[in-house]
Amino acid sequence: MNTLRWIFLLVGLAVAAFARSQEPSPTTKPDAPWSAEEARRLTALSSERPDLYLELGEELLETADSPERIELTRQLLVRAIEYGRSRTEYRRDAASAALALSSMSKRAGERRWLQAIAEALEPSSAYADASREQAREANREAARRASLFLTQLRSGEGIEARESLAAPGVRQVLQQHERELSASGRMSVQDLENESKKWPCTNCSGLGILVPGKGQKGPARICPVCGGQPGLKLSAPDLAAQLHLQRRLLGDNEDNWAAMIASGDAPPARDPEPAEVASAFLVDGRLSIWRDGQWISPLPKPTPEAP
Ligand SMILES: [Zn+2]
User: What is the value of pTM for the model shown?
Assistant: First the structure.
């Protein structure tokens, strides 16, 4: 049994080493997949506060829409478990992280293993799990509705857009992403709300054209008020920014979760041992600090002596 475990561990490490050797050098890309605010919070992390890894990991879980963000979410949650598992005051955070991690997994065995770990860390976490899942579901719905709001606004459906904006959590979601509402980052939620009040076009009832009334002759005309195109007008860069944001808001669909957990063969049946999570997910817990797009050790590396 123990021998088998070692074999799995060694195979895992070999696969990880190979994968790492295939990666390009981890320099920071100019187009980083995280926002400046996220980068600031990442840089502030320290293993003394596992709850902060959890907090950021759970937020990223809502917008894990690229391989980089998915991997970062996974790294944060595994570290929240690793640093919180043996400290009484943070065991609940570690349990929550295990549940969040299990929600990312598509493999039933892995989900059960992580849920058992959460249960081992915090016996009451099963109850907390239900309310957390409810909160997550509410967030997903608010993000979906926020995306719908933008679509409605651009097509001149002002009444529907205002309904969407008034739905629970939608305004908060848009405010969180306010800088992504336009290319310049200067378009505010208030601007969009004001815009929504202009629609539908009262001149053409949102049709874009004016059709002659019964008994009247003449061709249909393009509505002079909305120019035939009801809705919020955006420049190409602004439209691209909004569409990008909408993809992020809708990003947490099932297909994205598929790639989340380290690929490979199904893991062997394991005891619910919190200390084994990091190695199972190929995360080096000694690297607790985030700098310039990678995890590093908090201890300063010994500088080589000048000859
Ligand atoms: Zn019109």
Answer: 0.47
